[in-house]
Amino acid sequence: MTNLDQDWPEPIVRVQSLSESGCPVIPTRYIKPPTDRPTASAAASDAVNIPIIDVHGFCLDQDDALRDTILRQVSDACRNWGFFQITNHGIRAELLDDIRQGWHDFFQLPVEIKQGYANNPRTYEGYGSRLGVQRGAILDWSDYFFLHYLPPHLKDHNKWPAAPPCLRELIEEYGEEVVKLGGRLLKLLSLNLGLQEGYLRNAFGGEDVGACLRVNYYPKCPQPELTLGLSSHSDPGGLTLLLPDDQVAGLQVRNAHKWITVKPAPHAIIVNVGDQVQVLSNAIYRSVEHRVIVNSNKERVSLAFFYNPKSDIPIEPAKELITEDKPALYSPMTFDEYRLFIRMRGPQGKSQVESLKSPR
Ligand SMILES: O=C(O)CCC(=O)C(=O)O
């Protein structure tokens, strides 16, 4: 039986070293079944993109008309897409550029240095190359670095990269900004659901929310048509705030059975609803499957910041959203229990949140 109290079930191979070996074919462990390959899905029109919302620095108090427009746009995006990009969000453009560059530089360090941060399945903290511990699983074409930002007792600078210089400071500053942004977005979502503005944040544990960062590194791939940088999944947590690569597209979002390739707006942050918001909203908002494709001539870096509930409090549908017609769809579960699934099995579409629906 697999469990998380062990090391990885097979020796870890860094995808970056496979890429840099110059081999023209990828190992079979990375070859996806035909139905999961990027080329198997109907290509959506290039004109389609996820909604882009100018949140006007969230100046919600000053102007009622503007506030109503932003609320409506966010509401439509949550209901129709589960994914949207925000511009004018208040995070300095230089900070976004610097932190992306800092992480890019980290992945260019010699492998021996990065190995010093190698992670394990118990905490995921550090430098990793697989999600899930199932022996023989088909792997994704990416490496990553995972770290905790909140709660404060889990934050440990010694586990963050010491090089390049300033990366730790950049992570600190970026984390502070993104946590503020996550809090503001939860207010918008609460209001749009007809709840008190502080409802979702309180349900997430108030001052004790969790936050962690996964930086994804997708090396060049000699056979991108056979694999994925990250398999289809919905995010297990609350809200995800993603800083995409500004040079290379790769994120695809499932919408009406088609995969839409996201075209990032300059200095935008991509926001998506996670499974915990699906549970709290009693599926009025739904987390959405997404995946990442890779390519043969460009590497790609993205920063996924996960804004999560405190890990040991029960998360369940808001009482206000339960009616006779729509009883609670989910039983209470803590995020610690919930995230065991992805940590054991790796990315598996929306199978977890769908399987948890209470029998009716
Ligand atoms: O790299 C991306 O654009 C998306 C990353 C992602 O979905 C994740 O880290 O969960």
Automatic annotation (TrEMBL):
One Pfam family cited in the UniProt record for this chain: 2OG-FeII_Oxy
Catalytic reaction(s) noted: jasmonate + 2-oxoglutarate + O2 = (1R,2R)-12-hydroxyjasmonate + succinate + CO2
Ranges in a coiled coil: none
Gene Ontology BP terms: defense response; negative regulation of defense response to insect; regulation of defense response to fungus; regulation of jasmonic acid mediated signaling pathway
Gene Ontology MF, one: jasmonic acid hydrolase
Cofactor(s) for this UniProt protein: Fe(2+); L-ascorbate
Entries under InterPro entries matching the protein: DIOX_N, IPNS-like_FE2OG_OXY, IPNS-like_sf, Oxoglu/Fe-dep_dioxygenase_dom, Plant_2OG-oxidoreductases
Keyword annotations: Dioxygenase, Iron, Jasmonic acid signaling pathway, Metal-binding, Oxidoreductase, Plant defense, Vitamin C
Domain Fe2OG dioxygenase: 208-309
Stated family: Belongs to the iron/ascorbate-dependent oxidoreductase family.
PANTHER family registered for this protein in UniProt: OXOGLUTARATE/IRON-DEPENDENT DIOXYGENASE
Protein name in UniProt: Probable 2-oxoglutarate-dependent dioxygenase At5g05600
Lineage: Eukaryota, Viridiplantae, Streptophyta, Embryophyta, Tracheophyta
